[in-house]
């Protein structure tokens, strides 16, 4: 029994095979890849290295399951999702342990993620019974009636990231199953064990064979993605990840004109106006900049602070950052864990060097930590300006880059100076300004006087090169439905 398996209350949740058509399978080639703990670099598991043929088999399993599942009563699908939700909550401790072990985030953050992930199953269980069309008279022929029906789009390919290995799955699978679709989930190679544990709990919840399939690959990730985007059986692809990869998947999907929803990269502005509550603003920065060591797509990437409160804000921020404890996510005293791999550390190092070379002040951090290959100091940079790499690149690391500004117009111009537009934040006590700025920011999600913007009730998604489509909320299920019109003469 492995060390990780020994720590689990239910060791059967630690899976080393893929889940296809209700069975646990190996790759046809018998190839496997290892999964490591970014905190320690220890190998904690292995998963099958599936290829194109294996992926096509999973797609066929989802296709076979579709006719029966799409015809199930909405309440029946709701009950399945609710049982899955309940099983997730009853196994919170084990799921959190898996997340921390393969992702590195502190155990408290992982526990919060499990509950957040389960909430999407609860939300979409309740939405399943609310799928409805319309009936209306024809505009020119009084003897005709028009009826619309909302139907499941079909087999869905879902490609999920490593930073939220539980929540990004349930946020996609929940609405897909509620709508009556079947799915093939490509789990992230960096953190596949959580996805496989969720598949086991879905199986225990009674979700029929072939309805939910979870596959893994590392070296073959591109090939697997190409199958999901080009196979005509797959009618919809949902992807969360980087903008460059999203562009590639969109190009591939054009060959079969799939329905798409993409949640891509961000470069979130965080604006602190001169009338802001600075204590609340600091709390907001901590929540949305340093959470998971800066590895979320909605992390504040550019912190814009009015010059009237600039020095005070910087002093307060540095004082808070000094209290952070970086270390192994499984250690109770750890507030912030490692980055996911060495490439992420290198990007942080490059961003700091670039900023300092162009005149930024390094107030704290900025170096690798001797704890291991994946650790980087919590960092604050001051006197940032346009032209630095952080302005146009998503850092995805624990660097708070602070820019001064002098007017509301300047802040909005700086905030919108990016090709992407996922999230944005600002702090102000002026209600008129709050509406003006909220309307002016070119992003899909805005936090006003808060750094916490994630909720199953809230629609999540971006504009510009941050993608399209929405996840969560009452709008999230629309991504997995099509509308059919029936014109009937009476």
UniProtKB/TrEMBL annotation:
Its EC number is 1.2.1.16. It catalyses: succinate semialdehyde + NADP(+) + H2O = succinate + NADPH + 2 H(+); succinate semialdehyde + NAD(+) + H2O = succinate + NADH + 2 H(+). Keywords: Oxidoreductase. It holds the Pfam family Aldedh. CDD domains: ALDH_F5_SSADH_GabD. Pathway: Amino-acid degradation; 4-aminobutanoate degradation. One of its GO terms (molecular function) is aldehyde dehydrogenase [NAD(P)+] activity. Residues 24-486 form the Aldehyde dehydrogenase domain. One of its GO terms (cellular component) is cytoplasm. It comes from the Eukaryota. The active site is at 263. GO terms for biological process: carboxylic acid biosynthetic process; gamma-aminobutyric acid catabolic process. SUPFAM superfamilies: ALDH-like. Belongs to the aldehyde dehydrogenase family. This is Succinate-semialdehyde dehydrogenase. It comes from Akanthomyces lecanii RCEF 1005.
